[in-house]
Write a structure and sequence with these properties.
Layout: H1 9-26, H2 52-66, H3 71-86, H4 117-128, H5 158-161, H6 171-197
Length: about 200
């Protein structure tokens, strides 16, 4: 809204308050002002929550792009957090990728043993978002951010458009299916008998 209203004071104040509130929640002083996800303190983050810091960082970067006055409020915390995130990226990869696995708890020293797509994505995003002020702002409807819809999409009869291959069922097909069915039935009955007998 700040961007849409060309910097209206009302929205500047609201955005500032919102960012300050996010700092209170996600940059706690007892963790050195480093970005955290509240669930990580208790080690109960699920797979989705492990990537939430990536989204928070990205949207803070977008705030800088859409409302440049927020740079001085947001960037110091992002820079400090990015340094701490990078120092956790020395864990051994599970896929022979070297010692570049990133941890989850950035306020601790070194890799914390928490691996996965979420921590890796979060660390990468928090480091790359430092370029937000130099990158172009998100596209709008006036700068090419729209795509043309197709109301006729998926209304065509694909049976006429795509080739269909039909083969006749042969005696060999029937015999093969019967043999496989008998084998599966015998194995299933044998396993059931074995479980009951033992």
């Amino acid at each position: 809204m700040y961007n849409y209203t060309n910097g209206a004071e009302k929205w500047k104040k609201a955005l500032t308050n919102y960012i300050n509130k996010s700092h209170d929640m996600f940059y706690p002083p007892d963790k050195g002002g480093i970005m955290v996800e509240p669930c990580e303190h208790f080690g109960i983050c699920n797979a989705d929550q492990e990537s939430f810091k990536a989204y928070l960082g990205r949207w803070l970067g977008t705030s800088i792009q859409m409302a440049p006055f927020t740079y001085d409020i947001i960037m110091p915390e992002l820079e400090k957090t990015a340094v701490r995130a990078a120092q956790t990226c020395n864990g051994l990869s599970n896929h022979n990728g070297g010692n570049f696995q990133c941890g989850m708890r950035w306020y601790t020293d070194g890799y914390d043993g928490k691996y996965g797509v979420g921590p890796q994505m979060s660390a990468l995003n928090i480091i790359s978002v430092l370029n937000a002020a130099r990158a172009p702002a998100p596209y709008t409807g006036k700068t090419g951010g729209t795509s043309q819809g197709d109301p006729g999409l998926n209304t065509q009869d694909d049976s006429k458009r795509l080739p269909i291959f039909h083969d006749d069922i042969t005696t060999a097909d029937k015999a093969g299916a019967a043999i496989i069915t008998i084998i599966v039935a015998v194995v299933w009955i044998g396993c059931a008998w074995w479980m009951i007998a033992t």
